[in-house]
Specification:
Blueprint (H helix, E strand, L loop, with lengths): L5 E5 L5 E5 L8 H9 L4 H10 L1 H25 L9 H24 L5 H13 L3 H6 L8 H7 L13
Antiparallel strand pairs: 1-2
Helix pairs in contact: 3-4, 4-5
């Protein structure tokens, strides 16, 4: 006897939907069908997700404003120069720079063996990189990799302004 592949599921929203579960292994179909019963049907799930965009957008805007304020304060405190690039990339690049440099400080100085003098040299190198897209490209890097990444940066990644503050 063949194991069934289609299931009549009554979702938690009350809709009854026929699901073809043949793309799942036979021993996992019944469990998945039970899981589906505890969820809204696809139509109701999408409607609920799409109807709440205003609160999501408000939350995201508040979060971005909070991050922007923290990044701006950090950049001013540590005398980081403004970034250059496309308008859309400036905030993202500043956030990426903040995250990577603070992660590097944690990994190298607080948890590692670097002295404050070693860190000062690295911080000066980081100040010379003002292209926002470079920082965005490094957003997934580990903090401990920052020294090597800074050494690999080219002149195209550095600003054209006077490097002496």
């Amino acid at each position: 006897m063949a194991i069934r592949t289609t299931w009549e599921i009554v979702h938690s929203c009350g809709h009854e939907v026929t699901h073809n579960l043949s793309n799942r292994p036979a021993d996992r179909r019944a469990g998945f069908a039970r899981w589906l019963e505890g969820r809204d049907c696809t139509f109701c799930w999408r409607a609920a997700r799409d109807s709440d965009t205003e609160s999501k957008e408000a939350w995201l805007a508040a979060r971005r404003a909070e991050e922007h304020q923290a990044v701006t304060a950090w950049a001013a405190r540590f005398e980081m120069p403004p970034l250059e690039g496309a308008e859309k990339a400036l905030d993202w690049g500043a956030r990426s720079r903040h995250q990577l440099v603070t992660a590097a400080h944690t990994a190298l100085v607080l948890e590692g063996t670097w002295s404050d003098e070693d860190w000062s040299v690295l911080e000066e190198k980081a100040r010379t990189l003002t292209r926002a897209s470079w920082w965005i490209d490094q957003r997934d890097a580990e903090g401990r990799d920052l020294p090597e990444l800074l050494d690999a940066a080219t002149d195209a990644d550095r600003g054209t302004e006077n490097p002496f503050r």
